[in-house]
Design brief:
143 residues, alpha/beta, four-stranded mixed β-sheet, 8 strands, 31% strand
């Protein structure tokens, strides 16, 4: 068996419309057509990976939005530069969503964390030329 790539990531949410507002407006993800399943949802595509938002009425919010940790399971998005990262931070702040930045990350990246309406942790990363770790293994091999 040989796995070829990640196809999609799925999140169960309580309210698809709230999630559409978050993933569409805050993160600017492009919505794509979704098959007519017998439950509400929305699909987004970013590069080769899809993100499936699935409404599940008994879905539990995972944690308080203010309880942020880089060690939590999370979905990370890469942006090309600090200007893009700052644009997202402004949208998050205007929506009054708590966020934090992992200071002095040994990855050589700026790493910002916040939560979606159901408490899933979202990370935004971008290369940080100001970091003493800018020449890190991560940036040499993965960025």
């Amino acid at each position: 068996m040989k796995l070829a790539r990640v196809d999609h990531v799925a999140f169960s949410v309580k309210d698809v419309e709230k999630s559409k507002e978050f993933y569409g407006r805050i993160l600017d993800l492009p919505e794509i057509p979704r098959p007519n399943f017998n439950f509400p949802g929305v699909w987004y595509k970013l590069g080769e990976v899809m993100i499936h938002i699935i409404q599940k009425n008994d879905a539990d919010a995972h944690t308080n939005r203010a309880n942020l940790s880089a060690q939590d399971a999370h979905l990370a998005f890469f942006v090309e530069n600090v200007e893009e990262l700052n644009s997202i931070i402004k949208k998050v702040e205007s929506a009054e969503i708590p966020w934090y930045e992992l200071e002095n990350s040994p990855s050589g990246l700026r790493q910002v964390f916040f939560k979606d309406p159901d408490g899933y942790t979202i990370e935004i990363v971008t290369p940080n030329p100001e970091s003493p770790y800018y020449e890190s293994v991560y940036l040499k091999y993965f960025a």
